[in-house]
């Protein structure tokens, strides 16, 4: 892992795989607000995913006006956000035992509530602003294929109910037997399941909607404008210079929303934030799957990892289609080769084939016959960011005046980034620290101590098993 973590991420590559969501591309895909790059700006945000777009929106809705420039290396929302599965799912039970042990009950509760509140806030924001992004709020089910995971889930849910209280909506979890699981969710061969609140949407359409709102507030969006490097301004005491192929921009404050690519611009974080390439597929459902689509989202949990699945809702493009991602843990050497990998222009043959095959295996005879046009509609990859301690890095970069970061979301950004952006703007504006500490976890704060820890493996992450000592059967 040390070798993989030391690979420089480089810039986002041209001509990446096209995700299901990006076909066709949005009206902002190649947007440039002004023909030329401005020479100066108050605030510059690098990255146009859910973090960068939310940062720009929050800054532009502050009482004091600022000029805001947002740079994107490729097309708008072409990174991880535009390539995910569209899942707004907390799965806090997977982390609660370790978080209570390591951080204490109060901080563990803050993390759970931030995730839950972010999940709800995204869908509420889409409704409030009329963003057409196939937003669906409902339930998800985690289907278990390992008894150890079932037992740990029961302990974890009991701990959540103890910490948050039985009546807290974030503590609503329902267990089902294997027989109930097949009857209710059509999944065969399981050891049972766990149902709780979640949702789904097109994260790509959501971000384009946020960018549209920010543009109405005078955001300057410049796509296909990679930031090649950053440097402190030498001719004055404040600010930074951002170098691009189209010229230099002097900025008063610089915000990095660059996730797995962050070390390219700030090499001190090499090995602190490590990229992980993930795979997604869009599949046509079998004849046994309800034509109106399955009733909620899924995860299929085995002892070393899981796959996650999101059915497309009625009324959406290709309604009933199944989005399923993951699979790396089933690859040779448990997918070690995907760590440090930022090439999203291609897919791995083994992982793609595994994902294509696993849907029928999870549903068994309930899947029915494959669609005459074939099961696989599309496959693509995207680059996530993971940190050494398993938590996001949010705040001012230690020792670097006017440089801020929000990155490393452990593959769980859809229930983190929207509210984290609000927190980072508060940090940048030096707002009431007591109020921020009331809801924002200390574990997420950027500190010099956290930059000393190099990545050794997954911790507290959405895609890790709850017990790192579990050994793979696969």
From TrEMBL:
Signal peptide: none annotated. InterPro entries: FAD-dep_OxRdtase (IPR006076), FAD/NAD-bd_sf (IPR036188). Residues 42-425 form the FAD dependent oxidoreductase domain. Gene3D superfamilies: D-Amino Acid Oxidase, subunit A, domain 2 (3.30.9.10), FAD/NAD(P)-binding domain (3.50.50.60). It comes from the Eukaryota. Residues 1-20 are annotated as: Disordered. GO terms for cellular component: cytoplasm. This is FAD dependent oxidoreductase domain-containing protein. It comes from Lepraria neglecta.
């Amino acid at each position: 892992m040390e070798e993989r973590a030391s690979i420089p991420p480089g810039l986002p590559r041209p001509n990446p795989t096209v995700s299901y969501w990006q076909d066709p591309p949005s009206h902002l895909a190649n947007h440039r607000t002004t023909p030329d790059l401005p020479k100066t700006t108050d605030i510059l945000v690098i990255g146009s995913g859910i973090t960068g777009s939310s940062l720009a929106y929050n800054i532009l809705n502050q009482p004091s006006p600022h000029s805001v420039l947002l740079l994107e290396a490729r097309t708008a929302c072409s990174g991880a956000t535009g390539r995910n599965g569209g899942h707004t799912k907390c799965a806090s039970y997977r982390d609660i035992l370790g978080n209570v042990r390591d951080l204490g009950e109060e901080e563990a509760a803050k993390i759970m509530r931030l995730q839950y509140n972010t999940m709800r806030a995204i869908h509420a924001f889409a409704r409030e602003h009329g963003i057409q992004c196939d937003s669906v709020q409902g339930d998800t089910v985690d289907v278990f294929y390992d008894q150890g995971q079932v037992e740990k889930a029961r302990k974890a849910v009991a701990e959540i109910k103890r910490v948050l209280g039985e009546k807290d909506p974030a503590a609503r979890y329902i267990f089902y037997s294997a027989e109930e699981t097949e009857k209710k969710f059509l999944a065969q061969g399981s050891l049972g399941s766990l149902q709780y609140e979640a949702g789904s949407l097109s994260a790509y359409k959501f971000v384009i909607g946020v960018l549209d709102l920010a543009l109405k507030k005078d955001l300057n969006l410049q796509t296909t404008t990679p930031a090649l490097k950053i440097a402190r301004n030498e001719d004055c005491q404040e600010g930074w210079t951002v170098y691009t192929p189209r010229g230099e921009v002097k900025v008063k404050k610089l915000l990095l929303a660059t996730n797995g690519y962050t070390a390219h611009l700030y090499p001190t974080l090499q090995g602190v934030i490590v990229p992980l390439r993930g795979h997604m597929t869009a599949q046509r459902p079998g004849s046994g799957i309800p034509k109106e689509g399955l009733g909620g989202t899924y995860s299929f949990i085995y002892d070393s990892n899981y796959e996650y699945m999101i059915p497309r809702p009625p009324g959406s493009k290709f309604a009933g289609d199944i989005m399923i991602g993951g699979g790396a843990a089933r690859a040779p050497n448990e997918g070690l080769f995907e760590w440090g990998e930022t090439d999203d222009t291609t897919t791995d043959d083994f992982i793609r084939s595994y994902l294509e095959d696993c849907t029928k295996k999870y549903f068994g005879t309930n899947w029915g016959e494959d669609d005459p046009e074939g099961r696989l509609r599309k496959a693509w990859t995207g680059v996530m960011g993971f940190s050494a301690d398993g938590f996001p890095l949010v705040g001012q970069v230690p020792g670097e005046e006017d440089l801020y970061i929000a990155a490393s979301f452990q593959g769980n950004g859809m229930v983190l980034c929207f509210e984290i952006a609000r927190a980072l703007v508060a940090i940048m504006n030096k707002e009431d620290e007591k109020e921020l500490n009331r809801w924002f976890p200390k574990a997420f704060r950027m500190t010099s101590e956290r930059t000393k820890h190099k990545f050794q493996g997954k911790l507290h992450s959405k895609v890790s098993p709850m017990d790192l000592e579990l050994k793979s059967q696969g």
